[in-house]
């Protein structure tokens, strides 16, 4: 990896904080377009709840339909974010910084999107209130003798997802503490108070930097097993289904994990190229970064192709 041009700190802060400190006109146009899409999506969701989940392709023997497929897609994208960030952080690759930040943020937002999919898939998302609302100590449904089927993979998913979401948010927030301190020192009013809270008293002392680095390394080592286990559980959503015999395969867990890394690294590359183009960050997201991630993508794609061939071969038994 070639070293880029060394930029003064003042120029770096000006370039990278411009997107936060100022609001360009195209931002409001984008917000309006996204609002239209959200309204359309809410209308479609209302129609689906009114007419039934059959509109999504959900039927016997197809037990999963559109939303679980979408759930797997977003979970897969989120996985490579933390995986990429954790591995590069543990290997102390100095070129990693633009890639890891994009990967970490992508992970959190992808997980937040993924969490909504199983709720919509139930067909009765309002029952979440029954699960959360409690009588003195017991959830409302449980008090009435309505218990979840613990043998269902859809019960395993929430525990795995929320564990992963919690660890990912913690992972991202620890990495962002110095950045929050920079924003704290350059803002006023409510934004200053918010950034002060998130900076958690950061002053940039040698001891704070040392503790932040240690925390990042420890979380990187701890989050990798979580990443593997979560997508293995997602694969069992399909592997444990009784309706499709060809899905009863032990290859599903590694197959899904490698596939998640493949889609996630692709998403990270896409986000980095998009940010480079929109904000003009050619000095920070360089061709060398894209090239390195492209090489990683080739390796991951080769592994994924191996499992793909194995799945076909297993079908002949």
Descriptive notes:
This protein folds into two domains: about 10-50, no CATH class; about 65-315, Formate dehydrogenase/DMSO reductase fold. By secondary structure, the chain is mainly α. It contains eleven helices and no strands. Helix 7 (about 155-185) packs across helix 8 and helix 9 (about 205-240) packs across helix 10. It is globular, with a radius of gyration of 22 Å.
Attribute tags:
317 residues; mainly alpha; Formate dehydrogenase/DMSO reductase fold; 2 domains; 11 helices; globular
Largest sheet: none
How does the helix and strand content classify structurally?
A: mainly alpha
Mean pLDDT: 79
Which fold name is given in CATH as the topology of the largest domain? Formate dehydrogenase/DMSO reductase fold
Low-confidence stretches: none
CATH first level of the largest domain: Mainly Alpha
CATH architecture classification name of the largest domain: Up-down Bundle
Shape: globular
- Percent range for β-strand residues: under 5%
Q: How are helices and strands ordered from N to C?
A: HHHHHHHHHHH
Taking all Cα atoms into account, the compactness measure Rg is 22 Å
